[in-house]
Amino acid sequence: MSDKQPILDDFFVDAVAEVLNVGMGSAAASLSEMISDEVNLSVPGVEFVSRLAATKIIGAKAKTDVSGVHQNFQGAFGGDAMLLFPEEQSLELVRAVLQQDDLSLTDLTDMEQEAMTEIGNVILNACLCSMADMFSQEIQGEIPEFVKGSLKQVFSAEGSLENTEAVVLLLNMDFSVDTKNLQGYVTFLMDVESVQQFKNTIENMLGM
Amino acid sequence: MSVTNNSEFSVNQPHYSSPELFKSIFLGTELGLIIINDELNIIEWNPWFTKHSGIDAKDAKGKNLIELFPTLEKSSINRGIVSAIKNGMSSVISHTLNKKPFPLLNNFNQAIQHQITIKPLTLEENKRYCLIQVVDISANVNREKQLIGHVKENKAISAKLAEEKERAHVTLNSIADAVITTDKEGRVLFMNPVAEILTGISEKEAQYKNVANFYKLVHEDTKESVPCPVATCIEKQDVIANETDHCLFRGNEQLSITDSAAPILDDNGEIHGAVLVFRDVSQSRALSAKLNWQALHDPLTSLANRRQFEFKMKELLKKSRLDHLQHHLLYLDLDQFKVVNDTCGHDAGDELLKQVSAALENKLRKSDLLARLGGDEFGVLLESCDAEHTLAIANNLRQIVEDFRFGWKNQSFKIGVSIGIAEITGIEANASEVLSAADAACYIAKESGRNRVHFHQTNASASSEHQQEMQWVSRLHEALDNDAFELHLQRIQNISVLDTPSNHYEVLLRMVDKNDKLIPPGAFLPAAERFNLISSIDQWVVENVFKKLHQVNKENSLPDDLMIAINLSGLSMVNDALLKRITDLLDKSEIPASYFCFEVTETAAISNLTKAVEFLQQLRSKGCKIALDDFGSGLSSFAYLKDLPIDYLKIDGYFVKDIAVDGIDKAFVESINQIGQVMGLQTIAEFVEDDSILEILTELGVNYAQGYGIHKPTPFNEIFRKKSI
Predict the structure, then answer these.
(1) A10-206 adopts what CATH topology?
(2) Domain at B18-136, CATH class
(3) pLDDT digits (tens, 9 = 90+) for A137-182
(4) Rounded to whole angstroms, how far apart are CA atoms B99 and B87?
(5) Chain A: which residues have CB within 8 Å of chain B?
(6) Does A143 sit within 8 Å of B119, measured CB to CB?
(7) What would the pLDDT profile of B698-721 be if each residue is shown by its tens digit?
């Protein structure tokens, strides 16, 4: 599969983006409530790319390590969902949320990682739920976990997909809180079979 | 899921049926576990929850979770439960973002910090349940709090350290002292900018080099090298402070410095290095050298000052007591210095002193000390110099001053010096005794007519001189009491009418001794001046002149053109009582004031010019005439003539007596006469001893002549007896 050859037509992609933006709205509402401060989330772009291309795209933004939240999901289609930020951005995100500007440690502490996990969990659950709702399909999300490391390490950690020609549904995500604007990515890593199911599901939904 | 078939359970392990196993886990686990159904009613409630919430399982079961804990309704837990039951999603409810959602307490009644995970459970087909799992993370939270606390503390400490280091650095860079710190081997660790400047080597260059390599000292005076204080300080483990005169080499240059080195010791007294502090004191040393110089020298002439002179004199006195060598002291007083100072100003006076000092210094041996003792007084100490040589040196100095001509703004001044000599033999009580002996000798030299040398007579001769002087004092007192004086007159002849003897006389005084022998004034007047008897004598003269004239007037009327000239000394001119006495006499007397002329010398008049002018003006206002005596003997400043209220100018006989043979003297007299004439003064030439002199004076147009060639002094009474005949 070439990087340049679209995996899904633009038509499908637009539909996915619309669905995800709805999910982001509910995630933002939940987060705003959680931290008593206005949080805005939006997905300006969605694309299906190969795993390698996803690594390149995210790698272009994240010069250093990335950190984020990983959540496995199963159901009508299965895979691994990840919310990733360049590491310094994740620090900024968590500290903006927790309003701990005075603490200038270079790493997230355990408690901060825990908070980051919940934030990621809310976003990823919202994405998954909105898709499940839209397709009226069952998707089950596992307990999320905090991940950190180089992009390569993070992507290769999802063992079951390592040797397959996995495809990535890549979402650019803008996150704004407390006058800070941060850019992160949500990736849905799926095997070819799952992608096909995903595509079928969309076709069904659109009555094609 | 069936566990019983799981091979992990070995036959050797106790065997439990799976429901029992899971039940025991559920009951015994250190996690809080709740299972709720899709209506949020509690299905299971494990003992951990009972223990920490205080709610028994039987009270919890069947109850709606939100009703049991109403605060959960608006919490993330509710959202997680909905998400699990409705969408099958798992959630993490973090401690950080959700502070203690369940009211749980530990054994010590402290709130439990907890983290919650919510998972969907499918226990029956199409029916979702939800597992809520609570983990006590109090320990983790506390540990992290502590860690963060430590981190913050460390940060604060390092910030403070950095600040202190910065401050120390700024301080060391700002202070005026040079500072170098070394390790215990004496190798440079730090140098401040001043240290870089003073050593001429940069901190970078000096780094880790032994400080002794470039910090090289020598003693300022001996130029012997001095060990580096850092090495000594490290060796002795003690502070080394050097206030003495050390010089630091900066390349070929030497800087005067003071330095100190202190060991750097830790709490256990172990040495870690040294700190060397030094400063450039070149300027202050130069200043103190200058101050020292100033303390011992006269700033104008750069000669030794009185202080140094006295110090040296004391030393010499001490020395002479041991070595019995002969030393001499000269006391020099310039003649006519005051004239230059007063007529040309202090600048001229200062310049004259400088030039004379240089001229004198040139003629002295290196071992002799020439000092300026006061205004125009100098002292010379001649070490190991006998009387003969001393006299020769003194005369040499006198000659130099006599030959010296001081030029100032087209004028040339001639000065002289009177020198008194005193011997230092070791028997003198102290230095001031020697100095006053020389001073007295100088006074005698001056009194004897200036520009001469007088040797102070020591021992027997000194006391006899003293006795002689004392004798004069008593004789003068006696003479005044007994009127043992005689008045003589010498005619002052109007040259234009030589055939008619003028009725113009100068009164001259003679003392009459016990044997009726007449003593000339030169013998007793110096003593009279010295012992302040001169004004009394002047007064005696004035009173007796009046008395005699009264007598004459009674017997015969006095000639209309009579003019009696009376000498007044310098001291008399500042004597207000005498002035009053004279004016009283003039006021009361029938004799017209116009018959009197008062003669004062130039030197006397200018030694206290203001007072003298006042005195003379008073007499003149009464109608008396004033004559300036001995004009030309001193420095004859024409400038004074304008200031002094005078009528007659008496040309010093010194120029007159050789006028017939000496062209210079003639020219001198001529010019004095001319000036006098221009100023409307009557000129009188003294010492007119013969006709040849008189002839020249006539030719020059001098108005009056006085001297043996004209008229020899004759007793007062005789003149008027003659007159009356």
Answers:
(1) Chemotaxis protein chec (3.40.1550)
(2) alpha beta
(3) 788 889 999 998 888 788 776 544 454 567 788 888 888 877 778 8
(4) 25
(5) 30, 33-35, 71, 75, 97-98, 103, 105, 109-112, 114-115, 117-119, 121-122, 125, 128-129, 132-133, 138-144
(6) yes
(7) 999 999 999 999 999 999 988 887
